Amino acid sequence: MPWGILEDHHMEHVPGTIFLADQSDVPEEYRNIPRDLLKHGTGRHSHIILAPQPTDSPNDPLNWPTWRKDLILVIVGLSAGVVGAYGPMLSPGFVEIAAALGITVNTLSQATAWVILMIGISLFIFNPLAKKIGRRPVYVISSIIMLSGSIWGALAKDYNSFLGSRIWSGLGMAPYEVLVQCTIADIYYVHQRATRIAVWNMFLLCGISGGALIAGYIIEDQGWQWTLIWCAIIFGILLPLVLLFVPETAYRRNSYEQQWLGQGATGRDAKSETSEKRDGSSEQGSAKVETVETGAVTERKESYLRSLRLWGNIYTDTPLWKIFVRPMVVFFYPAVLWGFLLYGVTLTWIVVFSVVNAVIFTAPPYNFSVSETGLISLSPFILTFIGEIASGPLNDWVCLYLAKKNHGIYEPEFRLPPIIISFLVGVAGFFGFGATVHYQTHWTGPVLCFGLANMSLALSNASVFGYIIDSHKELSEEAFVAINARNFLTFGLTYFVNDWLAKDGVLSVFNVLGGVFVAVNVLTIPLWIFGKRLRSLIARNKALHQFMHED
Asked: What pLDDT score was predicted for residue 289?
């Protein structure tokens, strides 16, 4: 194996390794099915074999019209954007809010820490529920919590009540951090997902960076309570939209090979008569017929009123306790642990900015107003946008280039080289921020470094999540929950960072943060070398494989 990646000698085919030179357009899981029986897209996608293969049921979310799928994405995406804004939006007014509540800025920053802790805890509650009883009830419960938490926070008269509202809201924020990508996988085919994931990321980007930008003006002109009132108004609009237009997207379907084998000769003969009963107005088509033959079973199209029920089915036979434990097990997979450290540390360090910016920029020599402190978020907004746009195509190009040089064999480790770029950008951001503030340079210095640190995260995301998905495709949902356990790390740091800042100074604090950032990035080197052997080691553990996959 070239470039230092150690070859595995125990398995002929290591999970994640793909022989691109031997690939046709038929997905690997459908190689045993006759090509003419596989369903294709329509219109300009007519040459694409659909993956996953939909059933013939009109109730299969894959068969829904594209406009309905995109409407669901917009509603949950908007909700995710507001959730993204909810945490950091008060940061420009920390000094003013702390004075109004009669507390210190450090105590107020601890409220943010408790929000982050609750997000981490509730992930392990809502993820098993979403897998077991479906996405819809979790979305509805989350929206209700966010609406009530926003109203509670706006009416809070003292810190204890304010803290209670933040903790309660943190409980409802978690589903929109993880569940949207599950919904995208539920309703879109593989060739449609990249664009929709990018749309979801843009909602989050606008929320996280734009929230503080807008909130600075709201706090200065209307008062800090109005930031929460506006959140309540938005969630008051989004909750009915979720209830009316976001049906259950989880769906139990057999593998297409099982469907094909189960139908027998009669089903195969009838295939040509049933496979095209779809609405040509959508990319993949949506069944218009009231009943559809699937083997010997006839399924009637579900009415709109029935789709409004909050909960109706069980979507996995896996015990709830096992769903709960799996993210804890997958956390120790080397790829996931590396992702947790790299993504978790970088994101945690970025959260630190939102906690300390008000203290730094409202004091001499900068003396920013609350609205001007909010405008600082324009830097990470622009640079993160650039990073998001550049990282995907760059990562894909590097992978294809290395695979071509490797005689058509693709390894997930080919996702890792772009980490070099995000590493260099992050070093400039974290070390540069501490130095520019300490030596009191012009405000453009620390503001630019703030943006570079955020850009580093945007650039590394394609490598981190791409590598994990390619290495452990079937466990990606559990892996994302495990990685988001970084909320516990974020809680620990944000709880005391302002005291640390006051004691040791900004240069010392950000030198430590930069040093840790360097250390976790260096872990990419052993993963590059030993990654393939580690994937093989995990795949060969039969007991682990049996526990981690669906019953």
From this structure: 40
Q: How many CB atoms lie within 10 A of CB 252?
A: 11
Span 3-9, mean pLDDT? 90
Instruction: Please give the structure tokens belonging to residue 25.
Output: 């357009």
* Helical residues (DSSP H) of 134-255, grouped into ranges: 135-155, 159-173, 175-187, 190-221, 225-245
Distance CA 356, CA 372 (A): 15
Reply yes or no on whether the pLDDT at 265 is more than 50. no
- Closest residue by Cα to residue 412 from 316, 295, 536: 536
Rg from Cα positions in the chain: 25
Q: Are 227 and 149 in contact (CB under 8 A)?
A: no
State how far the Cα of 226 lies from the Cα of 124, in Å rounded to an integer. 32
Give the contacts of 68 (CB within 8 A, at least 6 positions apart).
286
pLDDT band for position 124 (cuts 50, 70, 90): confident
Q: For 41-62, how does the pLDDT look when each residue is reduced to its tens digit (9 = 90+)?
A: 778 777 777 778 888 889 999 9
Biggest CA pair distance of the chain = 81
Phi, psi for 409 (deg, rounded to 5): -100, 120
Q: What is the distance of C-alpha 318 from the center of its chain?
A: 24
**pTM assigned to the model:** 0.83
Asked if residue 296 has pLDDT above 90, the reply is no
Band (99; pLDDT cuts 50, 70, 90): very high
Nearest C-alpha neighbor of 428 from the set 405, 403, 445, 412: 445
The DSSP secondary structure of 430-497, one letter per residue, reads HHHHHHHHHTT--THHHHHHHHHHHHHHHHHHHHHHHHHHHHSGGGHHHHHHHHTTHHHHHHHHHHHH
